């Protein structure tokens, strides 16, 4: 749609050639997503009696781990393309990567930080989960602007059509043809999950309940949304029966289902007399 907000042309300053600069819509929205998620995490930390400054620092480390993980999983999923086109490796810096790769990259960083600073892991995860899913909702709007994570060809009345050759060069988005607005679907899904998590956070019965709700709801929703995705970088398992994200979604739901009774018993919040 609008992959670039603006471009400053190159110019000469005191004999130095200053190169042109482009502010991409995706990058701007990603920054907004991070700030919004950080604000929610800060508020939730204070409401839960946790060190808000420590949680804020943790979020920065988790973001770095998530960005690295998202790009690494994209490299693994689409390794044939990058092996045959090594010059395209630079495009990984502009790509959002695969979200589940970001989640898998963020989890060990969060675990390390919580252990190092003696934070209660499940209480901390409950604080971070709403901010993460709100960031996803805003970030998917960036994907929509950039044309990545595009949907399958369709003729539904709300189909979107990309026309900018720049998005095709960058991420291979089909032009001049109706596509499912899969990015908008996921943005609305994650916004709905954010509202549900904020409701659960004020009524939770055990620590970890908010995080488990996030994992379950997002994984189930993502499994369905994958049927509307049309980008080739999603990967496939079992001979193409499932996409990589669908396979991971199944594992995430199973893990959440197994953890739920354990945490409900071990992490139960005492009811005030």
Question: What features would you describe in this structure?
Answer:
- With 273 residues, the chain is mainly alpha-helical.
- It has one domain.
- The chain is 61% helix and 8% strand.
- The longest helix has 26 residues.
- The mean pLDDT is 84.
Protein topology:
Elements: E1 4-8, E2 11-13, E3 16-18, E4 21-24, H1 25-47, H2 52-77, H3 79-84, H4 99-116, H5 121-146, E5 160-161, H6 165-171, E6 178-179, H7 182-201, H8 209-225, E7 236-237, E8 242-243, H9 244-266
Antiparallel strand pairs: 1-4, 2-3, 5-6, 7-8
Helix pairs in contact: 1-2, 1-5, 2-4, 5-7, 5-8, 7-8, 8-9
Keywords:
273 residues, mainly alpha, two-stranded antiparallel ribbon, two-stranded antiparallel sheet, 9 helices, 8% strand
List the secondary-structure elements in sequence, H or E.
EEEEHHHHHEHEHHEEH
Uncertain residue ranges: none
| Distance between the amino and carboxyl termini | 56 Å
Give helix % range.
Answer: 55-70%
Structural class: mainly alpha
Number of strands: 8
Beta-strand fraction estimate: 5-15%
Question: What is the overall pLDDT average?
Answer: 84
Please state the overall shape, judged from the principal axes of the Cα atoms: globular
Number of helices: 9
The description of the largest β-sheet is: 2 strands, antiparallel
Q: What is the topology, as strand order, of the major beta sheet?
A: 1-4
């Amino acid at each position: 749609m609008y992959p670039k907000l603006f471009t400053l042309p190159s110019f000469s300053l005191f004999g130095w050639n200053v190169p042109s600069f482009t502010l991409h819509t995706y990058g701007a929205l990603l920054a907004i997503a991070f700030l919004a998620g950080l604000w929610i995490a800060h508020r939730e930390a204070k409401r839960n009696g946790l060190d808000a400054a420590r949680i804020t620092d943790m979020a920065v480390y988790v973001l770095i781990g998530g960005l690295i993980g998202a790009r690494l999983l994209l490299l693994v999923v689409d390794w044939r393309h990058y092996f045959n086109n090594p010059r395209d490796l630079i495009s990984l810096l502009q790509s959002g990567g695969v979200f589940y790769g970001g989640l898998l990259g963020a989890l060990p960083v969060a675990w390390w930080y919580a252990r190092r600073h003696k934070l209660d892991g499940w209480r901390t995860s409950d604080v971070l989960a709403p901010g993460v899913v709100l960031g996803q909702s805003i970030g998917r709007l960036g994907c929509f602007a950039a044309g990545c994570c595009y949907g399958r060809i369709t003729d539904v009345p709300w189909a979107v059509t990309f026309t900018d050759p720049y998005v095709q060069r960058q991420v291979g988005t089909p032009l001049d043809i109706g596509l499912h607005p899969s990015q908008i679907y996921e943005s609305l899904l994650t916004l709905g999950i954010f509202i549900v998590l904020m409701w659960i956070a004020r009524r939770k019965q055990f620590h970890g309940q908010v995080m488990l709700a996030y994992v379950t709801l997002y994984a189930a929703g993502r499994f369905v949304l994958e049927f509307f995705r049309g980008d080739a970088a999603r990967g496939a398992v079992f001979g193409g029966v499932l996409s990589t994200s669908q396979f991971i979604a199944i594992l995430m739901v199973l893990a959440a289902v197994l953890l739920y009774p354990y945490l409900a018993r071990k992490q139960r919040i005492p009811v005030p007399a």
